[in-house]
Write a structure and sequence with these properties.
Blueprint (H helix, E strand, L loop, with lengths): L2 H5 L7 H15 L8 H17 L2 H17 L10 H5 L4 H4 L17 E7 L1 H6 L1 E12 L14 E3 L8 E6 L2 E6 L8 E3 L11 E12 L7 E5 L15 E7 L5 E4 L2 E9 H6 L1 E6 L5 E6 L8 E4 L15 E8 L6 H17 L11 H9 L1
Parallel strand pairs: 1-9, 11-15
Antiparallel strand pairs: 2-7, 3-6, 4-5, 8-9, 10-11, 12-13, 14-15
Helix pairs in contact: 2-3
Amino acid sequence: MDYYRILGIPRNATEAEIKSAFRKLALKYHPDRNPGNKEAEIKFKEVNEAYAVLSKPDKRRIYDQYGYEGLRNGGFSGFEDIDLGDIFGDIFDNFFGGSVWGERRRKSRRGGDLKESVEITLEDAFHGVKIPLKFSRAQTCSVCGGSGARPGSGRNTCPTCRGSGRVQYSQGFFSFSQTCPDCRGEGEVISSPCKQCRGGGREKKEVVLNIKIPPGVDNDSLLRVSGAGDAGIKGGRNGDLYVQVRIKHHPHFEREDADLVYVSSLNVAQATLGAEIKIPLIEGGKTVLSIPAGTQHGSVFRLPHKGMPVAGQKKRGDMLVRVRVEIPRKLSGRERQIFMDLLALWGKDNGDAPEKKKKGGLFRKVFTLL
């Protein structure tokens, strides 16, 4: 029997390479992953036997020098008691539901993480705010203090594993060690469970926390509050709370990262002649922006450092003022005459005779351009 071929490793493989190959093949052929598969069962036995030899320096030396017969003459009878929990750690949790190998020595366990959401205004995001958040989480039982046992009672040594947390069983000439199914590796069982938490050591409670939202937070940002999640089990540390921040739509400003966009409406005269207009600020109050003569529809003006704070930094984005030139839909008699005079004047400047133009054509063109 070629143990190196079984594990798929070279004869000069290191201890780490041997262990890595064994882990991979043991996972592949394990009976729990291949129920009723006799071929997989045989492969699993061969893999374990190969590891039992090659992982022990003295047995490996005998095997390398005298081969399989040398081991048999030396009294080796196949598979010895290998503690797979020591080799695999928690890796089997992912494959076998945490019921085997992974839970030994894990009397405590970290609490779960939670995710909640809050909604704030853009002004809140600018200044930063503390907002109360009401949610439910698992907390240490107020009656039993997390032990899971009814007050006055205690925890007894598990009769199945006698307190070791592990049990041995045999499969053919193989011997396996696994987590005790009765105490789940703790070595103790509860004789009288706590009525409040039903032996779990935790209970659901509604709490209110003041969540600190920092200045400059963006929409859909995820804030982590360390230790504010579910309580740990049997002394394990608490999970974390993740808070998703949603920012309400603002009636005046649109946000582009740390910049704010404000749309300002101008009439034809303001855009043509220039003007000074007042622009609202996110922190309150207004500032004056000078619009130069001849400003076109869609022009953008930048007001430095008038935007949102940059999260975690002592600087601000800019305010972008986008100009929208509004064309009047209705004109008074006087306004219409003024525009007709302007139309005639522009027609002469362009060498055109207005009376020869299609009625209203040049007039519509002027307003389209503006």
